[in-house]
Amino acid sequence: MRTVLGKIGVLGALLGFAVVPHAVQAKSAKEYRKDYQRPKSVPYPDENKYSKAREELGKTLFFDPRLSSSNWISCATCHNPAFSWGDGLPLATGHGMKILGRRTPTILNLAWGEDALFWDGRSDSLEDQALGPIEAAGEMNLPLDQMEKKLQAIASYKPLFEKAYPKEGITRDTVAKAIATYERGVVSGEAPFDRYVKGDDKAISKAAQRGFVLFNEKARCNICHSGWRFTDDSFHDIGVPGKDLGRGKVLEEASLNHAFKTPTLRNADHRGPFMHDGSEADLAAVIDLYNIGGREKRKTLSKDIKPLGLTKSEQADLIEFLHTLTSEDKPVTVPVMPR
Ligand code: HEC
Ligand code: HEC
Questions:
Q1: Is 117 in the pocket of ligand 2 (CB under 6 A)?
Q2: Which atom of ligand 1 lies closest to the CA of 118?
């Protein structure tokens, strides 16, 4: 890149026009840091403001397997904090051990990404999303009127709801709002990369710093994995083979077939296998997919997916960088269930 532009520079000088140098020069790792600063606080919507009582109730519901007809599957069965809020499986397993069509995504940092929930973006708020898996036959398989009756019959849920949503009762709405409040607070903690962004030059290794520059330049990962959450909240076909039409099916728009949401890369190394169908075993496999310009080159393949020509050591540097996005969070405690 530099040499080609360097030659244009010489040519430009010969022909008598100027080439602006700062526009073409590679930046150093430090200069990219400002693009990745974390926000200071979590946004909560006015219709469902934060309170500790709401968050605690939501956490209890999130971990309560009685939200399923089998009394056996909770949200946390699939969104397991021990696997960075995924399940470590290629495809999710739901009611009756049925294997579902897609992999469980993380619920980390969704307070900032509510416009496009699910791999195909078919939901646009955490409240709206929360009841879906409870009633879905393949997931928790509990019709919502039954869920309401079931929770109303558990005596010590009553004061928890009353404290969180006074006079609103135990309803599908208050269940959804409490779960959404809990989810908004599920945020990845400070990672070595965040300390580096804040100015601690030694927080990540030299290899990871090289990987960070590659991420923003030669590998161009930042085109889609942008900002502190490492996602543009948008949808792309990156060449993962398969029949799932993703975003194209939701919008009935053929040009978006096989496009899936850009997942966050925060804490990704706890979450493999990767992609909407769990088809890439580990980070090395993911880098290989990008390096060859996608595994399936369809008409819908993003124009930003092209062979990258990364050497083995550049691939290793990128992986080293991705590891620095993992935070060292305290283990999540599991709440005692109301009886
Ligand atoms: C059987 C496993 C399973 C259970 C149980 C489950 N989920 Fe999920 N969850 C998934 C899968 C799979 C997806 C992705 C589905 C898709 O994109 O079509 C998903 C997607 C989500 C998303 C969207 C994440 C994103 O990045 O867009 C949220 C939020 C979520 N689930 C919350 C919940 C909540 C809250 C519960 C409990 C009420 C729950 N889930 C129960 C498997 C599960
Ligand atoms: C054109 C946009 C785009 C570019 C460029 C891009 N990605 Fe992605 N990335 C995505 C999308 C979309 C997915 C999910 C695709 C799917 O599930 O089918 C994804 C998935 C991933 C995953 C799997 C995460 C998970 O939880 O499953 C990793 C890791 C990843 N990308 C890293 C990278 C790296 C490293 C680069 C640069 C070499 C890169 N991406 C370049 C859009 C992009």
A1: no
A2: 27
